[in-house]
Amino acid sequence: xxxxxxxxxxxxxxxxxxxxxxxxxxxxxxxxxxxxxxxxxxxxxxxxxxxxxxxxxxxxxxxxxxxxxxxxxxxxxxxxxxxxxxxxxxxxxxxxxxxxxxxxxxxxxxxxxxxxxxxxxxxxxxxxxxxxxxxxxxxxxxxxxxxxxxxxxxxxxxxxxxxxxxxxxxxxxxxxxxxxxxxxxxxxxxxxxxxxxxxxxxx
Length: 203
Hints:
Layout: H1 20-31, E1 44-48, H2 58-69, E2 74-81, H3 88-98, E3 103-107, H4 114-119, H5 126-138, E4 143-146, H6 159-175, E5 178-181
Parallel strand pairs: 1-2, 2-3, 3-4, 4-5
């Protein structure tokens, strides 16, 4: 594809040279200043973000996922992947993890336009995405995440952007799935993909 960075869109992720536990501890340190309660403790979601986080054999994935959800302060796990990298045995594993702590699967749905998908070399048809979401739902994974990002040739908040999001939301509604919608364009949030800061008053 042409829309991911060399870091697999995980430019702010922990180093893959560290164990899962070490990466989680590093992430906790980075966000600890945002925690406002008296004992400075918090609850966290383990986020497998960079690259394709179901692209391995089930035994390897099981070890990684179970290590991530072991700490009491980890209350859920979010797994970024591709819809064409979700074989049945992997979905069965996600089902088992979801029985311990909630699982959210983040699937890239960059566009509903097949011509655009071909141009950005997404590598799968819309039907593959729909099938993956349905199989996740059938196995008890009832949450999915969508978020805007660069590199997809679709202007943020444009008519095509809303069409792409609405196509996904309509299908998710049919399946009675809960949807997370990232609140901005890429990260960090706050400038609406540069639309806010175009106005000097808001810079």
